[in-house]
């Protein structure tokens, strides 16, 4: 699956950013809930391993979900327990080794294979796309913290598609119905190619850089902090609360709350 290679390349880009960091950089709080680099890598590494178990060991996957339930769904506690103090450069090495294994595993998987997960089952394609999205989204707080503006590539298309596919989910997570059909998207990819989704602009249009659309649907930026051109009531409502990830309804960061720091 191309999505597996996209996940691999996005992870490698993040690894290249992290590899030169000094040990103190792993413990500095980021703009995302005060998570440190260690926290981000722990989260990515544990759930990459869980995604691998979807294909290789469903019984072990269920056992680990059971342990998470025993911890009252406390993800941070579960992740810390699972890694038993692994941090810093050792965690970075373990994470990137796991990335390569997971990418290899999914590259040869049937994209349509249904895989067990904590909620409804999902396709293998959806599972590895979710790992791409998580890596890209949580990577953003690290890019922001170290003062590097990320150079995106067209591998973010999978995140755009996820944002499109979760239009209704944004409202379902809030116990509501969408106010209308999904607005039209006219997005410029990092390569300059134009990606269009939706044929009817009656409910509005979201136009601009694909990477900024990804920032909004992953809630790494408030739409007000982007250059997206959003027209129409439905489009404005969607962009004010878009959420492409699972879990309880979450609110985007306030305007100006998330930004790339000026490098020293």
Secondary-structure blueprint of this entry?
Blueprint: H1 2-18, H2 37-56, H3 58-70, H4 75-83, H5 88-107, E1 114-115, E2 122-123, H6 124-146, H7 157-165, H8 167-172, E3 184-188, E4 194-197, E5 205-209, H9 210-217, E6 229-231, H10 233-241
Parallel strand pairs: 3-5
Antiparallel strand pairs: 1-2, 3-4, 5-6
Helix pairs in contact: 1-5, 1-6, 2-3, 2-4, 2-5, 2-6, 7-9
Description:
By secondary structure, the chain is α+β, with helices and mostly antiparallel strands. It contains 10 helices and 6 strands, in the order H-H-H-H-H-E-E-H-H-H-E-E-E-H-E-H. A hairpin with a 5-residue loop joins strand 3 (184-188) and strand 4. Helix 1 (2-18) runs parallel beside helix 6 (124-146). The mean pLDDT is 95.
Overall tally of structural domains: 2
Strand order of the largest sheet: 4-3-5-6
Work out the helicity level: 40-55%
Which second-level CATH architecture of the largest domain applies?
Up-down Bundle
What is the CATH C level class of the largest domain, in words? Mainly Alpha
Distance between the termini: 40 Å
Q: The CATH topology of the largest domain is what?
A: Four Helix Bundle (Hemerythrin (Met), subunit A)
Helix count equals 10
Largest sheet: 4 strands, mixed
Poorly predicted runs are none
Number of strands: 6
Summarize the structure.
This protein has about 260 residues and is α+β, with helices and mostly antiparallel strands.
């Amino acid at each position: 699956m191309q999505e597996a290679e996209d996940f691999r390349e996005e992870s490698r880009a993040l690894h290249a950013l992290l590899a030169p960091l000094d040990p103190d950089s792993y413990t500095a709080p980021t703009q995302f809930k005060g998570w440190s680099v260690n926290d981000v890598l722990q989260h990515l590494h544990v759930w990459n391993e869980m995604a691998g178990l979807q294909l290789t060991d469903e019984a072990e996957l269920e056992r680990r979900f059971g342990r998470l339930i025993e911890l009252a769904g406390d993800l941070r506690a579960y992740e810390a327990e699972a890694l038993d103090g692994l941090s810093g450069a050792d965690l970075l090495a373990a994470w990137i080794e796991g990335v390569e294994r997971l990418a290899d595993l999914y590259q040869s998987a049937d994209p349509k294979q249904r895989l067990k997960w904590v909620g409804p089952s999902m396709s293998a394609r959806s599972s590895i796309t979710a790992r791409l999205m998580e890596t890209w989204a949580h990577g953003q707080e690290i890019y922001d913290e170290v003062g590097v503006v990320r150079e995106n590539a067209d591998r973010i298309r999978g995140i755009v598609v996820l944002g499109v596919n979760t239009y209704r989910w944004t409202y379902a997570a809030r116990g509501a119905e969408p106010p209308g059909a999904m607005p039209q998207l006219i997005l410029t990819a990092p390569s300059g190619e134009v990606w269009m989704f939706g044929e009817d602009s009656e409910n509005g249009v979201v136009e601009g850089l694909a990477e900024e659309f990804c920032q909004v649907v992953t809630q790494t930026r408030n739409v007000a902090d982007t250059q997206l051109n959003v027209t129409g009531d439905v489009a404005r409502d969607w962009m004010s609360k878009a959420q492409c990830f699972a879990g309880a309804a979450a609110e985007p960061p306030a305007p100006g709350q998330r930004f790339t720091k000026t490098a020293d």
